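Continuing the series of single-chain predictions for the mutant panel. This is the parent chain; the variants come on the following pages.
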Amino acid sequence: MKKIAIITGASSGLGEEFTKQISKAYDYDEIWIIARRLEKLDALAQKINTEKNAKLIKPIAMDISSKDSVYTFKQLLEDEHESLGMVGSGIEIGLLINNAGFGTYGTFEESSLSKEMSMIDLNCTTLTGFCHIALPYLTKDSVIINTASLAAFLPLGNFAVYAASKAYVLSFSIALAAELKDKGVKVCALCPGSVSTEFANVASNGARKEVLGGIAPDKVVAHCIKLAFAGKRVALYRPKWRISAFLSRFIGRYMGARFTYLHNKRPHAPEDELAESFNLQ
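Parent structure:
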């Protein structure tokens, strides 16, 4: 059997870092990296494949911000499995990392409706679909990592849809971990706080180039990989993130949303000014 790893949102940030670390430390026959920006995927694939002196990384340019992408993904897996089946083999998914996603800063009222709906499709619908499509190819000790957020633990004003979408990812991942435990499949929700990626630039439409207090993605990724393969269900790298997640249990949901609406204003440019900044991984 051909053992593969699949990483979405791999053109930058956490997804790119996942690709680098998985290619160095884990033994897969092929790593599929999926994102919209083919030139970035190709560059990453060429770099790693040259270092490995092998065709390990397979770049797949695909916009996965719609339901149709789930069925495209299904067809990709079926075609690969059937082509290998002709020679008496097939594929198994040893690792699935659903990392693609984005957020938006600002109140729900002033946000673009189409962008908020695309966010739900990408952060929730596609992630759910990819997990379901992957199930027949998972085996004992396969791992699923779903990128949620520290925002998953409490409703947030000025971040309403994003926080809600990530609360879904966290809840879904833990439930899936419970259902797949007897099959030996591990599921982990990565819940990062501020990390130095393109997230803030996209969420603010270019008004904030860097997230405040962001840390390097390599540490977050290394910690998550270690915990996921050890069977942990939630990965929170920094102690302050773990404390925040714990304390959220004692804060009323409405109180948390109201406080962040009043006091956590995030800069953002109007949609029509910097539409080109909307660039999913």
